[in-house]
Design brief:
mainly alpha; binds FE2/S2 (inorganic) cluster; two-stranded antiparallel sheet; 273 residues
């Protein structure tokens, strides 16, 4: 009897969420006394800095190629790109804006719909909610059940596109070992290779990849190869958040290094060739 009354009280003091009662009706914004705001604030700051830098670089349209290095923001370079930057041709020659904008939808869509980044920007930008056990400012919560957020479900298809982009980035890193004088490598090669390896790890640690490799199976015992792959991907997946952040950093470092070399601000540090 007592537990029935307690349950009723809980229901009465709850507000409706997307699927029913979700939050106690308490006066305080939160009962948490720790510095819960630190994580969303740090996410907001670092993420904003990356978006500002990437937007500037994507629209700028200059200093993205320093033979033999091509910035990942411009790869593949399909517009009116500088000589030597378009190994896959220029099917969008005449595109009036920066060539980076032609392919931007794929890496951008992949990251925007990423399960980890959703959590990050829902919390730090939309405060929905800003942290566990902290009320969000809006009275109503509709989740990802309607437009536009229902479109987050296309993540799997961006994952397939990201695989193609990763292959192209790998190609760029390999051909960059061929400088005008033959085989050679410099600091730019090291940066490109590290970046592409980490991009692969981030891409393969994706939740969609985990489902592609091991989902929809009734018996792992009948699919030992897929089980091994799924086990490997699952291990990477536990660090997906870290790889998401690390690759934001390596993308900026790679693009920035190539921009500085291309603009003549610094010279590429050559080890061989
Ligand atoms: S890239 Fe993050 S979940 Fe797919």
């Amino acid at each position: 009897m007592a537990s029935t009354e307690a349950g009723q009280a809980t229901r009465e003091t709850a507000r409706s969420g997307v699927n029913g009662p979700t939050r106690a009706r308490i006066g305080a914004k939160t009962l948490r006394s720790d510095r819960w705001w630190l994580a969303p604030l740090a996410t907001f700051t670092v993420f904003s800095a990356f978006v500002a830098y990437a937007t500037f670089r994507a629209f700028w349209g200059h200093d993205y190629f320093a033979e033999p290095y091509l910035s990942p923001f411009y790869s593949p370079c399909l517009g009116d790109c500088v000589e030597g930057a378009s190994d896959f041709g220029q099917p969008f020659a005449g595109f009036p804006l920066s060539a980076a904008l032609i392919i931007l939808i794929f890496p951008l869509g992949f990251r925007l719909t990423c399960y980890y980044y959703r959590k990050a920007y829902y919390r730090s930008f939309w405060l929905s909610p800003p942290a566990c056990a902290v009320a969000e400012p809006r009275a109503r919560y509709t989740g990802e059940t309607r437009l536009p957020l229902i479109l987050q479900n296309v993540h799997r298809y961006f994952f397939y596109a990201a695989l193609v982009i990763s292959v192209i980035n790998s190609y760029d890193a390999i051909v960059a070992f061929h400088s005008p004088g033959g085989f050679g490598f410099g600091l730019g090669n090291v940066i490109l290779v590290v970046n592409v390896i980490l991009l692969w790890i981030y891409t393969l640690s994706c939740h969609s990849c985990r489902h592609v490799t091991g989902g929809r199976l009734k018996h792992f015992s009948k699919h030992p190869v897929r089980y091994r792959i799924w086990t490997f991907i699952s291990k990477l997946n536990t660090r997906h958040m870290q790889f998401a952040w690390i690759t934001l950093g390596t993308l900026i470092i790679t693009d920035c290094y190539i921009m500085l070399v291309a603009s003549g601000t610094i010279s590429d540090l050559r080890f061989v060739g």
